[in-house]
Amino acid sequence: MMIKKEKILKDIKNRITFLIKHLSKKKLEEKLGFEEIDFSDLYFPKYTFQYISPGGNSSMSVDVKFDLENLEKFIEYLSEKIKWQNSVEGQRALMTPKLREFIKERDNYTCRICHNSTEKEPNLLLEIDHIVPISRGGKTEVENLQTLRWKCNRRKGAKLVV
Ligand SMILES: [Zn+2]
């Protein structure tokens, strides 16, 4: 552990000395962010996306350079995705059949209001309810979901409207 730490410290020291020796003061200031940085000599990683068909007899490859323009597009794409996920449609889309089944199982196929269950009443129609409705900023997350019998769900909805 100690040896490793010393090695890292020595390495950093060497690099700083190297920078001071080899760069002019102005250039060093630029590198350290004191002044406006000249972006023209920055290194941008290039990513290669490759598709190879299952049989292996055809392939496609695309190079994407992560330059400032592409980074900006990427950030825009991510923020759009996040905005959508937080929207009403996004939250509704997160409610998958798998999640519904998970919540019902967690709640033992029992309505959380009247405690009727499919065990007691095989034809009981159970629904998944957002405890805080999506329209009020509720999220499609397990903590905000509960199993309700459809009758209790309608009653709850009616109460909320008032
Ligand atoms: Zn109920």
- Percent of sequence in beta strands: 5-15%
Order of strands, widest sheet: 1-2
Number of distinct helices: 6
* Class from secondary-structure proportions: alpha+beta
Mean pLDDT: 83
What order do the helices and strands follow? HHEEHHHEEH
Strands, count:
4
Each distinct ligand: zinc ion
Largest sheet: 2 strands, antiparallel
Considering DSSP H and I runs of 4 or more, what fraction of the residues is helical?
40-55%
Instruction: Give the overall shape, derived from the CA principal axes.
Output: elongated
Distance between the termini: 65 Å
Oligomer: single chain
Question: What is the CA-based Rg, rounded?
Answer: 29 Å
Structurally, the number of domains stands at: 3
Low-confidence stretches: none
SSE arrangement:
Layout: H1 2-22, H2 25-32, E1 46-52, E2 59-65, H3 68-86, H4 88-93, H5 97-106, E3 126-130, E4 145-149, H6 150-161
Antiparallel strand pairs: 1-2, 3-4
The structure holds zinc ion.
What does this structure look like?
This protein is an alpha+beta fold and 162 residues long. It has 3 domains: 2-40, no CATH class; 46-86, no CATH class; 89-161, no CATH class. It is built from 6 helices and 4 strands; from the N terminus they run H-H-E-E-H-H-H-E-E-H. It has helices at 2-22, 25-32, 68-86, 88-93, 97-106, 150-161; strands at residues 46-52, 59-65, 126-130, 145-149. It has a two-stranded antiparallel ribbon. It is elongated and about 80 Å long. The chain starts with a helix and ends with a helix. The model has no long low-confidence stretch (mean pLDDT 83). The protein binds zinc ion. Zinc ion binds at residues 111, 113-114, 116, 148-149, 152. Keywords: Endonuclease, Hydrolase, Nuclease. GO terms for molecular function: endonuclease activity; nucleic acid binding; zinc ion binding. This is HNH endonuclease.
